Amino acid sequence: MARVGEPFNMPTDAGMTSDGSYIFADGYGNRAIHKFRPDGTYETTWGGVGEWNLTSTTPGKFLVMHAVAVDHMDRVWVCDREKDAVHVLDQEGNTVGYCSTHMGQPSGVDADEKYIYVVGRAGYLTIFDLDLNIAAQLGTFNSDLRAHDIAVDRKGNLFLFPTHANEDHQVIQLKRI
């Protein structure tokens, strides 16, 4: 299904910039990021139909954007679950970072003042620093860290919301030490 169109066609997540603009991942039925001004006025659409193969990674173009978050530097982090990648965009929609290294089908992202946390439904938790480097990666394929989303609190504790594969857990809490 090749599509990049007007908002909205099965959106998957939303984030907010420091000026109060809204960022929407229109990820299931569209392949686009939409930006709205703080008053709700539509501003722009970024993205396009991506592909994934061994020779083409197409940063800034998407397959299924499952989650989006805005870090405190106003960069937009996009989890492209089916592409097994994370895209980092500036406020104009330009790609400033891209990672497709063992992301484990990234499906959730959140940020604090020091790190950006990406969780995948295949069992990985990847922690990026503000320079877009991988600071740590936890888990292995099909580990108990399989999660559908993630949240970080003010103390740096992480809360993972498991996939149905983790039937014994409602929420997994990882405390910052």
- Give the percentage of residues in beta strands: 35-45%
**Principal-axis shape:** globular
Give the oligomeric state of the chains in this entry, treating copies of one chain as homo and distinct chains as hetero: single chain
Specify the biggest β-sheet.
4 strands, antiparallel
**Through-space gap between termini:** 45 Å
Calculate Rg over CA atoms. Answer: 15 Å
Strand order of the largest sheet: 1-2-3-4
Question: What is the H-and-E element order?
Answer: EEEEEEEEEEEEEEE
Query: What's the helix count?
Result: 0
Number of strands: 15
Mean pLDDT over all positions: 86
Low-confidence stretches: none
Helix/strand structural class: mainly beta
Query: Helical proportion?
Result: under 10%
What does this structure look like?
The chain contains no helices and 15 strands. The mean pLDDT is about 85. Helix content is about 0%, strand content about 45%. The protein is an all-beta fold. β5 and β6 form a beta hairpin. The chain is globular. The strands form 4 sheets. A 4-stranded antiparallel sheet has the order 1-2-3-4, with no helix packed on it. Strands 5-6-7-8 form a 4-stranded antiparallel sheet, with no helix packed on it.
Question: How would you describe this structure in keywords?
Answer:
177 residues, mainly beta, four-stranded antiparallel β-sheet, 15 strands, 0% helix
